Structure formats: C-alpha cells, structure tokens
Amino acid sequence: MTAPILQVKDLKKHFDARAGLFGEKTSVKAVDGVSFDVMPQESFAVVGESGCGKTTLGKLVLALEKPTSGSVLFNGDDVSKMKGPALKKMRSQMQVIFQDPYSSLNPRMTVEDIITEPWVIHDMHKNPADRARVLDKLLTDCGIAKSYLPRHPHEFSGGQRQRVGIARALALDPKLVVADEPVSALDVSIQAQILNLLKDLQTERKLAYLFISHDFSVVRHLCTRIAVMYLGRVVETADSETLFNDPQHPYTEALLSAVPVPDPSIEKRRKRILLTGDVPSPLKPPSGCHFHPRCRYMRDSCKVNDQPLLEAKPAHRAACEVLPFKQKPSAAALIAL
Amino acid sequence: MSEPVLSVRGLRTHFITRERTVKAVDGISYDLHPGKTLAVVGESGSGKSVHALSILRLLPEPPAKVVGGEILFNGKDLLKLDPEGIREIRGNRIAMIFQEPMTSLNPVIRVGEQIAEAVVLHQGVSQEKAWAKAVDLLKKVGIPHPEERVNDFPHQFSGGMRQRAMIAIALSCEPNVLIADEPTTALDVTIQAQILELMKDLQREYNMAIVLITHNIGVVAEMADDVVVMYAGRAVEHASVNELFKSPKHPYTKGLLGSVPSIYERKERLEAISGQPPDLSGGFVGCPFAPRCPSVMERCRTDDPPQFHLEGGRMSNCWLVEGEAKTTTHRNAESGSAR
Closest to A260 (Cβ–Cβ): which among B222, B269, B270? Predict the structure, then answer.
C-alpha cells in the first residue's frame, strides 16, 4: 500500500464577517471539516456549486491560506507549519493551474519568461544546454510551438494561454497539480483539447491531480475519485463510476439529474429531480444537515442532527442517514422510465 | 404546418471601421414556428449573439451594419422599420433575455418598477395596474412572497432569482418570440435546471417561439426542436435536434458533438477539433473551416461551399454532402430565391 501524497484532515477555514456595519459578529464557514486523501498519480475531483468552498479548499491545500483548524499533509508533512526552504521545496512539488488564463499570466512577460521563471526562483536548469533540452520537452508535451516563446500573452487565444499556464505549472516537475476550474473559461472544442492534454500529461509525467470543478461531465471524463461539497462540507465521496451510477446523497442525486445530457433521446425520456430554492447563504447555514430545506427525503431528525460522513457502501461514504438505506431507482433506471 | 412567426433570410451583419471590416454574421437563414424552440449553437465569436442583437436592432450603428438579408416577423421585414416601429415590437412582440442578469437589470430601480415599465409603455395601463401585474408575473416565474419581493432591488435577489425577474420582464407583454441569449450560462446547474424548466412551462402556456442562443450542447439536447450550428458567422448546419445528434453532416458539427464530455458515458479520449477559430476580418478563400477540418478536400481550400438542402429540410454548408443535395442556395440568399 502506497502512502497518500496529500492528506486533508478535518480541515476548517472560517472567515470573520459582520452582518452590516454594526451588526453581530459572525463567521462564514467556507470550509467546515473536510477530510480526504489523494494517492500518487490519482486524479481526485472536488465538485460543487458556487459558494460551496471548493476554491478555498484549493487555496488551503496550496498553503495560500492558513487553516482555522485541521491540517493538510503533503507527503506526510503539514504544509501550514512549513517555513523558509522547506516551504519553497514543497511548493516546487505542488503546483497550480488557474481558471482564467487571461488574468493568471503576467501581460508584460514573454511566454518564455513565464514558463522559465520557476527555474530562476528554484535555481534549476542553469546549464544552457540542459535548460534548452528541458524547455523543448516541456513545449512539445504541452503543445506549444517554439515560435511562441518571444511573444506576449495578449497575442494568444484562451486555449493557447491555458497551455502556457499548464507548462508553467509543470516546469518544476511537480508531483501534485491543483487545477481550479482549468477549462471552464474555454469553448467546448478548445476545452476538449485541454482535457486531452491534461490526461496525456498525467500518464506521461505521473501526476496526481486535485481537480476543482463545478462541471460533472468534465470530472467524469478526467477523474477517478470524487468528493461532492455543499456549504463547506463534503456530503459524498466515492470512486467516479460508483458515484455516477449510484449516488447515495440526495444532493448528489439532484445535481447529477440537473446536468443536461448531450443526447436528445436520453434527455427527452429522463426524469429530473428539481431542487427548490437557492443554495442558502453560508453566513446562516441551515441547522442540522445543511441540505435539509431542499431535500425531498427530509425527516424531522435531519433538522437537528449534523450528518457525519458514513460508510454507505465499501469505499463509498455519504453524509445522509436516510437515502443510503432507502430502496430507490438507480440513475440508469430513471432514464429508462 | 403553421406560418413561421419569425423568418431570417440571409442575414449579414458586419462591423465596419476605418481599418477593417469584421464579418460577424455572414449568412444565416431559418424559420421559427409558434411554440417551437430553435437553438443557435456556436463557440465564442461565431456570431450567434450578434445575430440575435441584429433581430432587435440592439447593435450600435456604426460600427455595426446589417449589410444584407431580411428578418420577417409575421411577414413584415423588421429591417425596413423606422426606430419608432421597431420600438413597438421590441420588448412587446419580441422580447429578449440576456446572459448576465446582474448587468442587465438596473441596480438602482426596484424590480417591480422594471417589470411595470414595459407594461405601462406597451399596454398603456395605469401605474397601479402595471404594479399588480408585476406581482402576478413574479409569482408566475416562481419568486416566493412576490408581494414583498416586488419592492426589492436587484442586488437583494440571488442569481437565479434575477434571471427569473428578467424572464418576468420579457413575458410582461406576452411576446410571440422570446430570444434567450445564453440564459443559464452564469448559473449553477441546479438553478439552470429550474430556469430551463420554467422556460418550457411558460412556452407551453403562451405558445411562444424561442430562439435559444447557447454554447452548451446539453442544453440544446434538452430544449431545442431545431438547431442551427454557426461557425465563422455562417450557418453551417441546420437540422431537427434528433437528426443533428443522430447523424451530424457537417464536420464542424461532428467535432463539436465529439468534444463534449457526457456524464452518461466515459469516453477514453474526446475527439477535439484541432486548431483555433478563424479571425473574421478579411474574407475567406474557400471554406472557413477547411484549416481545422479532418475531412478536408482539395477544393475546400479554394471553393466556398454553398448551402446544400437535403432530405427532411436539413441543410449543410459542406462539399461532402453535394451528392445528396436536392437544391442549392447561396448562404446570403434572401426570400424569393430558391429554397
């Protein structure tokens, strides 16, 4: 059994807030007790709607935010306790790809400077021949033409910029890449190119991905295990095939049924579970199970009891005490209806 | 078959500046029937939104200019109307909802007033009656406690509620045609599902025709009866939704459908289209998709393909279907010419 590359343990991040200028002091529980492991060379996805805390989670993992409590262990070491050289070394092993390729590249730097800056910072590949060889390989892997090197980001389209962002992230040969919505700003045909690229790079360079996304279809294509978040908490985690075929949390079930399927013959036959209302404000999350006001299986006890993540099936955990034990039609059966 | 409520014929909208001309829309034609939904699909820069804004003449002129085509609404050419005439139709008979509900609502005016404004303007009723109608409309689009929420400002609404309020404004005059430009792109999936469901219900109730502009293939599969695929400002394929997904004719449509990951099947690789969409300033020699096309032939690089009309009212703008074509038209053809 190999050790996980990333362990997140009961991680919490609370931001102080005030309701109005003189209002009562409260806190937004952006991440509220999240735990999971990511294995080497695995692609693990965190999925949720806006405001569920998935981006904050990514920042905590990258040690860009300090957790309120809990810990993030990278290769067994707590990232929030690292300082100086240890932190710098850890950062070279854990890189990030951002959502917006327009704002995450410095417009005044050339593509070459952007991609090779990590080597300057980490004092790597100083031998010109060595540098040229590594850069050449990196460009080929990421599908960037050599002629791009002296040019600036504004000369490129979104897809090409995202390739530059990916090349920069991979320049240091990291072991873990945190990808925060890396394709959601791109058009579908370009999105497909980048998804294929991420898949190829993972095999080629033996990467582990922590993939943060709101898009289930993208996640299914790329990831092997998934955690679903709602209002700062993980409500369900399983490997991706199991999660898609047999969701055990009512929120996951509704979320999956809300995703439009690119096939009219399925789309016209399937039954949709419509959630009522909006995601509640994270300033005032509902009592008990956060999902209970929108849940169709709600019982009185759900309003009071916090639902811990329970083993619903082997390697499949859900924070619900009702649905896992209810007989219900599977997603496949819902289509057949 | 009923008469089409909206017919677009060979529409061309260009942006003309001193330096260059960008042919944002360069030949799109379709018929839209009452109670039906036509989806216009394409990637950014394909001209789908500019086409919609051209219908209601919401583009700044100059630099935008409709250089050709006809837009027939109940048989009347909207392009020949004076500003007064188009104002009577816009927001009244043809209404529009936009992608970003926050920027398209006025932040300093109460939601109720923004709905009532259109009612007063187009139906000439009193303020009180219009206000009562605003409450009714908010109720109809599923806003809880409409009597209270009608007094709210847009920032007090969530994203989904703002889009509902936009729909209430669009529906206030019971339009014959609703143009929805990426209505759910800014919303989360669960909210998107609610809004699409609402649009379908209201369409049934008012027998309204919808032009749905989107890049989301899943939304197309769910909502559309007919689909027009746009590339480089042109309609490259036109078919019923089932036909289009079952047997796409144009290589771009095939590529687009192959690019989309689905939650129902795990594809090993997505069939991505290589390359980038073209620059629309300056003209094309041959087919604009040729540089990215996997089935490109010699003639595609030199000869601009016409629109080939096939069995079952389908159209594909590709030389590959030349053999099956029943008739052929140029993409800029207006009514009167062969169809």
Answer: B222
Contact of A101 with A193, CB cutoff 8 Å = no
What is the interface pTM, i.e. ipTM, of the complex?
0.80
Give the C-alpha separation, B339 to B309, whole Å. Answer: 8
Instruction: Please name the member of B188, B269, B273 whose beta carbon is closest to the beta carbon of A50.
Output: B188
User: Which one-letter amino acid corresponds to residue B58?
Assistant: L
> What residues form DSSP beta bridges with B16?
B21
Q: What are B220's two structure tokens?
A: 């197309």
Q: Which of residues 191-220 of A touch B (CB under 8 A)?
A: 191-193, 195-196, 199, 214, 216-218, 220
C-alpha–C-alpha distance, residues A151 and A111, integer Å: 6
- Residue A214: CB atoms within 10 Å: 17
A283 residue type, one letter: L
C-alpha–C-alpha distance, residues A225 and A229, integer Å = 13
* A137 shares contact with chain B (CB less than 8 Å): no
> Which two three-digit tokens encode residue B205?
């109730």
The ranges of chain A with pLDDT < 50 are 333, 336-337
> Rounded CA gap, B173 and A247, in Å?
43
The mean pLDDT value of chain B amounts to 87
Answer yes or no: do B270 and A190 touch at CB < 8 A: no
- CA neighbor of B323 nearest in space, from B338, B337, B339, B311: B311
Tell me the pTM: 0.84
Among B294, B97, B302, B251, residue whose Cα is nearest residue B180: B97
Interface test with B, best of A52, A102, A187 (most B CBs within 10 A): A187
A201: left (phi over 0), alpha (psi -120 to 50) or beta: alpha
